[in-house]
Structures are given as structure tokens and as C-alpha cells.
Protein 1
Amino acid sequence: MQPLQIEDVVKSFGERRALDSVSLELREREILGMLGPNGAGKSTLVRTMMGRVSPDSGSVRIFGQTAPAGDTESRRAVGVVPQEIALYPLLTVRENLGVFGRYHGLDGSALEESVNKALHWAGLTDRAADVTKTLSGGMKRRLNIAAGVLHEPRILLLDEPTVGVDPQSRERIYEMIESLRERGVSILYTTHYMEEAERLCDRIAIIDHGRIIAMGTQEALVSQTIGGAREIVLDCDMAPGAAAAAALADRGASIDGTRIVIRAEKPAETMAEILAVAAKNALPIRDLSMKRPTLENVFLHLTGRELRE
Ligand SMILES: Nc1ncnc2c1ncn2[C@@H]1O[C@H](COP(=O)(O)OP(=O)(O)OP(=O)(O)O)[C@@H](O)[C@H]1O
Ligand SMILES: [Mg+2]
């Protein structure tokens, strides 16, 4: 039985269809990325999964049970970290965690132990007594995440947990999340940063205009949409002369001053040909690279748009 199963979920707000027949499953111990641009429907889907939004049709099942069942057990099974920071600014860090712990039915020494564990996990032990509004943005984000996992849920829904966070805190958050997966938590990770999805997620669902338009491992998404093609980029110290330019154009290159870009179905062969042209024409190479297609390329290929428009 999968931790979370969404089937044919439809949700409209007035005329606007925010979710259009969305189906997906979150598997045991995976980080499933949900990648999509602003307004794609990510938060609406997360809020549907946690029972905050009731779908017009379709079903959400948590460990096989129709959600929201409303009972304490299914509430305990799911942890949520909302997109907006949801903390009490005037309470201390420790008091905030206390509030969230009690909400999930913890108290006494069990609560204290969970709070101490969460503080340690989030790297906030030495800030426990500080008033929350005095924390840095990255620390607030970490506390926001800690508040969502304090009760050790088996499923965690994270809605863009690194927005506005500097790269160092971001890396720390990735490590926190990976340690949860190692503990057996199944994680849905919503983001519009493709680097993040690539770095962290076992599988990725791409969502656009309320629809899941592709789902799979990064490798599968790339090979299904783009195939084996690679982009070879050659930077030269000077623009290629007429003979070199003609030879490169014959191989499908586009030349922009000193920069030459070639899309290659057979990258090894094309690379060898380019190097031969450069050698023959004494073209001084400054930099030569071959890029693996990214999820950005996949998104562009599927939608005709950039992920960040
Ligand atoms: N409560 C609401 N009332 C009316 N429209 C809403 C409501 N919530 C969401 N929408 C609309 O549904 C669509 C999807 O919004 P949603 O917040 O789910 O997108 P998102 O993918 O989370 O975007 P972002 O990356 O900006 O957070 C948007 O067009 C939004 O305006
Ligand atoms: Mg959102």
C-alpha cells in the first residue's frame, strides 16, 4: 500500500481550474519532487492532500484510507511544511516547537524529548531560547520544517521549503530532508527550482496549468523527451574564419561570434569532428563543454516555455 495516492483530483476556483485530473502516488521512502512554475497548482495539491482544500472530484488516500479521515492517527501520519512561514513570531524557538508538538498530541517528557531532537536536527539548539522573530530567514525556514516533522510523521509534504534561503542554509535543509528519507519518511517536495529537484528527488512530477505533464526519474524524463542528444558548446579566442565556419555549419552548428553551439545526437562522434575542424583551421579553443540536458530542457521541450518566466 502506497503512503499517498491521489487519483483524478479536480479542483476549480470559480472559472479557474487549479487542478485538472491529477493522479500520482508517493512511494515508501522516496522523495518525489513536484516541479512547476508559479500558479501551476502545487500548493493547491499539497493543501488537497492535507485536507485543507476539498477537491471537486477525485480521491486522496493515505496508506489506503480515504483522506481526510480526521482521526488522530491519519493526522499523525502526515507532516506539512507550508509555503508561507507559519510560526508564532513572539514565542521562543522552543515554545514554537512545543505548540506544534502539543497540537499533534505530544506532552510531558515525550514532548520535551521530541523538541530537543528537533532542535538538534535543525541546528537550532543554541537558539532555543531566542524569540522567533529575531532569527535569520534561513533559521526560520529550518524551524518551520522542524515544526512539521516534530511528531515523526511517516509522510512529509514540503511546499517550497527553501524559498528565500541562502545557498548555505539551503544545503543544510537538503541534508535535513535526506536524513528523514533515511529514517523511512516518504516525502513530497514541491519546488520551482529545477536544480533542487535534480539534487534531491528520486522521482519528479512536472506540473503545469494544473496537470501532471510528465513523471519519472530525471534520467527517464530526459531520455523520453530529449533522447540521447547533447549540447556541445565551444568557446574560442577568436571567431572562426570562413572555412572553419562553413565546416562547422555543415555539422549543424550555430555560431554566435566566438561561441559555437551544436546539438549532437551522437555526441562522441560530433565532438571528435569539431576538434578536427578546430585543429585543421587553427581555431584557438578556450573552452569546450558538453552538457547533459537538464529538467529545464525537459520543461521547455514539453511546454515550449521556460520554467521561470
Ligand atoms: N483560494 C484560492 N482562491 C482562488 N484561486 C486560487 C486559490 N488558491 C489557488 N488559486 C489559483 O489556483 C492556481 C494554482 O495556485 P497554486 O497556489 O496552487 O499554485 P503554485 O503552483 O503553488 O504556485 P507558486 O509557485 O506561485 O506557489 C492559481 O491560478 C491560483 O491563483
Ligand atoms: Mg505554491
Note: The radius of gyration is 24 Å.
Protein 2
Amino acid sequence: MAYVISDSCVSCGTCEPECPVGAISQGDSQFVIDAGACVSCGTCAGVCPTGAISEE
Ligand code: SF4
Ligand code: SF4
């Protein structure tokens, strides 16, 4: 299962460069994860200051 970003995201951008496959990008109102690219490594969830990222 891919990881997902909830509406707790404050668009700080910390997670984007940490993703090894470039699956995270800035969306319209918050950052988003491309479910098709995510390999569920969990790295992004560990660096998010608001705990907005979790496994779907
Ligand atoms: S779980 Fe890993 S592969 Fe998926 S978006 Fe987060 S850092 Fe990228
Ligand atoms: S680290 Fe968390 S709060 Fe920051 S952009 Fe990523 S999901 Fe949003």
C-alpha cells in the first residue's frame, strides 16, 4: 500500500527531497504522494513535523 498525506499537511516541503523515488510533489493545497510511484519505504512519514503522512 502507498503512503498518503492527510489534510494535516502544512506544506513545509520537508518530505519532498527525502523520497528516494521522487513520489512527492506540491499539489494545489498541500503536498501529495503519487501512489503509483511510492514504494512504501516510510521515510517521508518519519520526517513530517505534523504527522500528516501514514500508510493508506
Ligand atoms: S513512503 Fe517512501 S517512497 Fe513512498 S512517498 Fe514516502 S518516501 Fe516516497
Ligand atoms: S513534511 Fe508533512 S507537513 Fe511538510 S510538506 Fe510533507 S506532508 Fe506536508
Note: Strands lie at 3-5, 24-26, 31-33, 53-55.
